[in-house]
Design a protein that fits this description.
Blueprint: E1 5-8, H1 14-23, E2 25-27, H2 37-44, E3 49-51, E4 71-73, H3 84-89, E5 93-95, H4 102-117, H5 120-128, E6 149-153, H6 157-170, E7 173-177, E8 192-194, H7 198-204, E9 207-210, H8 224-230, E10 235-238, H9 247-256, E11 261-264, H10 275-279, E12 283-285, H11 294-312
Parallel strand pairs: 1-2, 1-3, 3-4, 4-5, 6-7, 6-9, 7-8, 9-10, 10-11, 11-12
Helix pairs in contact: 1-11, 4-6, 7-8
Length: 322
C-alpha cells in the first residue's frame, strides 16, 4: 500500500522531517521559501495531507471538490490563516498544536515586558552604535514590574502561564478578561480578578498582555479607545496575533504618548512591519519568536505527525482545530 503523500510548506526541525520522511511520502520545502496561496491551492490537488504554518494563506477559494487533500496538519496553535468553515465544508479535517508552546510564549511575553520596562532595547542599540558615554544616575531610567498590575486579555493556557510568571516572579497583581468562565482548577494558586470587559482590564492595568486568537470577531479588538483606557504610563504586550490590534491606532497612540510603549512579537500583515514602529524607541520589536525554542518547535512538529498518524490509521485525531 502506497504511503500517504504529504507536503510541508516550510522547513521544520530536522528530527520531525526525519520522522515524516520515514513514515510518509513527504515533500519538504528545502529552501524554506514561502508558498503562495496559488501554490498551496495546487498542492491541495496533489497531496493527501498539506501541513501549513502561520506564514501561509488558505482562503475559502482554495477549497473545492477536486481536492485530493483530506487533512490540514497545521503547524501551530493559531488557525486564523485558514478559512476553517470553508475547509470543513469541503470535507477536510484540520488539526493544530495546542499546549506545547504555552511555556515558551509566556516566557516571551515576560521578555517583552522586561525589555520594555527596563528600556533594554534602547540600551543595546545605544551601546552597539558606540554612543554609550558611561554610567550616570539619570541614564535610561525605566520602571519596575514589581507591584504593578498586569491585565491579561484572553485567559487561556498562555494567558494563565504568563500571569503565573508575572505574579510569582514579580509580585504583580493580575486582572483579566475572558469571554467564558475559566476553570477554577486552572487558576489554582493564582490570585487573579476577572473583570467584565476588555476596557475594564485596560483601565486597571499598568501592563496589558494580549492572548486572544486572531481573525474573525477578534480583528482590531484593541484600538484607540482601549489605548486611552490603558493610559500614558501603560504598556501593551502582544504575543497573540497581529490583527487583534488596530496597528494604525497603535502607532498613533505611541506617537501621541497616549500609551508609554509596546512590546510586539506579531504584526498585522507580517513579515511587513510599519516603518513608523521601527523608528520608535519606546517599542520592542521581535520577529515572531513566541515558540522559537528547539524543544517547542520539535514538539509542535511531532504533534502534527501524531495527528497525521491517527488520521491515516482511521482513528480520531488528538488535536482537531477548534
Amino acid at each position: 500500500m502506497a504511503q500517504p503523500k504529504i507536503l510541508l510548506t516550510r522547513r521544520w526541525p530536522q528530527a520531525v522531517e526525519d520522522r515524516l520522511s520515514r513514515d510518509y511520502d513527504v515533500t519538504l520545502n528545502t529552501d524554506d521559501t514561502p508558498m503562495t496561496a496559488e501554490q498551496i491551492g495546487a498542492a491541495l490537488g496533489d497531496y493527501d495531507a498539506v501541513c501549513p504554518t502561520v506564514s501561509d494563506s488558505l482562503p475559502a477559494a482554495l477549497f473545492d471538490s477536486k481536492m485530493r487533500t483530506r487533512i490540514l496538519g497545521n503547524y501551530g496553535v493559531g488557525v486564523n490563516h485558514i478559512d476553517l468553515d470553508a475547509a470543513r465544508a469541503a470535507g477536510l479535517t484540520v488539526t493544530n498544536t495546542p499546549g506545547c508552546l504555552t511555556d515558551c510564549t509566556a516566557d516571551l511575553a515576560l521578555t517583552l515586558m522586561l525589555m520594555l520596562a527596563r528600556r533594554a532595547g534602547e540600551g543595546e542599540r545605544e551601546l552597539r552604535r558606540g554612543d554609550w558615554s558611561g554610567w550616570r544616575p539619570t541614564h535610561l531610567i525605566g520602571t519596575k514590574l514589581s507591584g504593578k498590575t498586569l491585565g491579561i486579555v484572553g485567559m487561556g493556557r498562555i494567558g494563565i502561564a504568563t500571569a503565573r510568571r508575572a505574579q510569582g516572579g514579580f509580585g504583580m497583581k493580575v486582572v483579566y478578561y475572558n469571554r467564558s468562565e475559566v476553570d477554577p482548577a486552572a487558576l489554582k494558586g493564582l490570585e487573579a480578578e476577572r473583570l467584565d470587559t476588555i476596557d475594564d482590564v485596560m483601565a486597571a492595568a499598568d501592563v496589558a498582555s494580549l492572548h486572544i486568537p486572531g481573525g474573525g470577531a477578534n480583528a482590531k479588538t484593541i484600538g484607540a479607545a482601549q489605548f486611552e483606557k490603558l493610559g500614558a504610563s501603560g504598556m501593551l504586550i502582544n504575543t497573540a496575533r497581529g490583527d487583534v490590534v488596530d496597528q494604525n491606532a497603535l502607532i498613533a497612540a505611541l506617537e501621541a504618548g497616549t500609551i508609554a510603549g509596546a512590546g510586539l512579537d506579531v504584526y498585522d500583515g507580517e513579515p511587513s512591519v510599519p516603518e513608523a514602529l521601527t523608528r520608535m524607541e519606546n517599542v520592542v520589536l521581535l520577529p515572531h519568536l513566541g515558540s522559537a525554542t528547539l524543544e517547542t518547535r520539535e514538539a509542535m512538529g511531532h504533534m502534527v505527525a501524531d495527528n497525521l498518524d491517527a488520521f491515516f490509521a482511521g482513528r480520531e485525531v488528538p488535536n482537531p482545530a477548534g
